[in-house]
Design goal:
Strand content: 15-25%
CATH architecture of the largest domain: 2-Layer Sandwich
Number of helices: 4
Largest sheet: 4 strands, antiparallel
Order of helices and strands: HHHEEHEE
């Protein structure tokens, strides 16, 4: 208080008026504003959760959409021979073994065999299980043994 008493009357009045204003401003700026912003952010977050809950409740009431899958009824051996004919690949031997089919190709162009395998996997619902390829003396010609099954 000694320092306050040494001030002139004008300075005392100025300090007595300014000090409460500074305290009010500091309380507003460092107390009220952060609380108000936190409250607004919490309301926005709550609204987001409520929207999510409503969407989940609405989604739960909808029937589950099941994608229709075309069931292939054609036998595997028939699909293999048809796709080989389309790819102009000569099948030398076809050996069914349970769910698998072993295919033997003699003297087939390499690029035709690769394209045929890709076409079988994409178009004919046939999966390649194993393959063995041997080079022939002519360039680009191979002998192949494939093991195939239904793709599912």
């Amino acid at each position: 208080m000694n320092a306050f008493n040494r001030l002139s009357l004008r300075e005392r009045i100025l300090v007595l008026i300014a000090l409460p204003l500074v305290i009010l401003f500091a309380g507003y700026r460092f107390g009220w504003v952060p609380l108000s912003e936190a409250r607004t952010a919490a309301r926005v977050e709550i609204q987001g959760y409520q929207t999510l809950i409503e969407a989940a409740e609405n989604q739960g009431n909808q029937p589950v959409e099941v994608a229709t899958v075309a069931v292939v009824t054609t036998p595997l051996a028939t699909r293999i021979t048809d796709s080989a004919a389309r790819a102009q690949v000569l099948v030398r031997r076809l050996e069914p073994e349970g769910a698998l089919v072993r295919v033997t190709l003699d003297d087939a162009p390499y690029d035709a065999v690769i394209k045929w395998i890709a076409a079988m996997e994409t178009d004919a619902e046939i999966a390649l299980v194993a393959i063995e390829m041997d080079r022939r003396t002519a360039p680009g010609i191979v002998a192949a043994r494939l093991t195939l099954e239904n793709a599912q």
